[in-house]
Amino acid sequence: MSLIVRWAVTGPFLENAYVLVCGSTREAILVDPGDDPDRIDRLVTEEEAHPVAIYATHAHLDHVGALAEVQDRFQVPTYLPAADRDWLESLPAQARMFGLPARPVPKVDGPLAEGQRIRFGDVEGVALATPGHTPGGTCLWFEQDRVLLTGDTLFAGSVGRTDLAGGDFDTLVRSIRDKLFVLPDEVTFYSGHGDPGRLGDEKRSNPFVGAAAIHSHFLPPR
User: Fold this and answer.
1) Cβ pair 57, 63 in contact under 8 A
2) Does the predicted TM-score (pTM) go above 0.90?
3) Are the beta carbons of 183 and 177 closer than 8 angstroms?
4) Residue 86 CA: distances (Å) to CA of 3, 166, 181, 212
């Protein structure tokens, strides 16, 4: 496998900030730098990696809170779903709401859109639009390596919350079932919080969107 996945659990929300590294060229991307930029920096150093871009799966505070500082350190372009720009602009207000220090609104160099190719070194992936947790929620799929980054769309045994502005449970369910559950069972997914999981396990037993939910009449069949 050419893709190396490292992460640090950051900040008061215990968010997973990722460093994805091409094992042959050491080029890398940073995904969801939510907090603790020094820890993210250490992962980059440990892997002798050379970041070429930053991607945000969505614009909640816990996923982009350290984005401006990480941008200053690495001077690489940042991509974020266009539908989450309102969330990004509200970053100072998000911090105040939780009694946290103000976070500057970072610049964005381009959108992260459905079907967008993600390339670093010998690694290639694609963006999958999965709204529901936020309007712009997006996952990153690396087919060759059977690796999926799900942000706050899907967790091991759970799904993202939908009670914040722009969230919608029915939309989230459709995103997971139509975009993620069509991928192979053996895919390892890495989410915004908690441990990695296997996609096949979620198809069978996730209590919100898996077969268990369908059998309990929580969800209609396909």
Assistant:
1) yes
2) yes
3) no
4) 32, 10, 29, 35
Helix axis angle for 37-46 and 67-74, nearest 10°, is: 40
The pair of three-digit structure tokens given for residue 18, joined into one six-digit string: 């990722």
Confidence at residue 221, expressed as pLDDT on a 0 to 100 scale: 43
Please tell me the distance from the alpha carbon of residue 25 to that of residue 45, in angstroms, as a whole number.
14
3-state helix, strand, coil in the chain (%, to 5): 25, 30, 45
User: DSSP string spanning 148-188?
Assistant: EEEETTEETTEE----STT--HHHHHHHIIIIITTS-TT-E
H or E stretch covering 29: strand 27-31
Mean pLDDT to the nearest integer, 150-176: 97
Of 17, 12, 9, give the one whose Cα is nearest residue 100: 12
Chain length of the chain:
222
Per-residue pLDDT tens for 4-47?
A: 999 999 999 999 999 999 999 999 999 999 999 999 999 999 99
The residues that bridge with 112 in the sheet, in sequence order, are none
CA–CA separation, 36 vs 26, rounded Å? Answer: 22
| pLDDT (tens digit per residue) in 85-110 | 999 999 999 999 999 998 999 999 99
What is the C-alpha separation between 26 and 44, in angstroms, rounded? 10
And the tokens for 207? 């209590």
All structural domains of the chain: 3-215 (3.60.15.10)
